[in-house]
């Protein structure tokens, strides 16, 4: 392989790797908007730092992928305790839009986030909360 061919190959590998990395990493603006949404809508009842434990609501660190209603140490409503599945983008989106419609009988006293972009940003932020 000539030096020119090697440089072209390496350059295309870098471009491909960069595209994959940017697709897998949430953009900073969405995370920042999601953090703001969390602080204004969720932080009074939920924490996202594992060390803070549960507050009024369950700790949301690692919520994406967690089984619904199964965080140890939190007393869930029967509605959430009996739920099947795990929190993913679709289930979080539905719950954050209208908790009572998504999980009838939930004890979460929250009207929901009507704005689609605000919910998407919040979910993007929650995906970073590990």
From TrEMBL:
<dbReference type="GO" id="GO:0046872">
    <property type="term" value="F:metal ion binding"/>
</dbReference>
<dbReference type="Pfam" id="PF00034">
    <property type="entry name" value="Cytochrom_C"/>
</dbReference>
<keyword id="KW-0349">Heme</keyword>
<protein>
    <submittedName>
        <fullName>Cytochrome c2 iso-2</fullName>
    </submittedName>
</protein>
<dbReference type="InterPro" id="IPR002327">
    <property type="entry name" value="Cyt_c_1A/1B"/>
</dbReference>
<dbReference type="GO" id="GO:0009055">
    <property type="term" value="F:electron transfer activity"/>
</dbReference>
<dbReference type="GO" id="GO:0020037">
    <property type="term" value="F:heme binding"/>
</dbReference>
<feature type="signal peptide">
    <location>
        <begin position="1"/>
        <end position="23"/>
    </location>
</feature>
<dbReference type="InterPro" id="IPR036909">
    <property type="entry name" value="Cyt_c-like_dom_sf"/>
</dbReference>
<keyword id="KW-0249">Electron transport</keyword>
<keyword id="KW-0408">Iron</keyword>
<keyword id="KW-0813">Transport</keyword>
<dbReference type="InterPro" id="IPR009056">
    <property type="entry name" value="Cyt_c-like_dom"/>
</dbReference>
<feature type="domain" description="Cytochrome c">
    <location>
        <begin position="29"/>
        <end position="130"/>
    </location>
</feature>
<keyword id="KW-0732">Signal</keyword>
<keyword id="KW-0479">Metal-binding</keyword>
């Amino acid at each position: 392989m000539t030096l020119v061919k090697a440089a072209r190959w390496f350059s295309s590998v870098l471009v491909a790797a960069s595209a994959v990395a940017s697709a897998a990493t949430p953009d900073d603006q969405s995370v920042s908007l999601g953090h703001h949404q969390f602080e204004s809508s969720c932080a009074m009842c939920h924490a996202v730092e594992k060390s803070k434990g549960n507050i009024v609501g369950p700790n949301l660190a690692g919520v994406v992928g967690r089984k619904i209603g199964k965080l140890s140490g939190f007393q869930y409503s029967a509605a959430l305790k009996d739920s099947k599945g795990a929190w993913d983008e679709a289930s979080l989106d539905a719950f954050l839009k209208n908790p009572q419609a998504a999980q009838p009988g939930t004890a979460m006293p929250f009207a929901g986030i009507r704005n689609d972009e605000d919910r998407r940003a919040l979910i993007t932020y929650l995906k970073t909360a590990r």
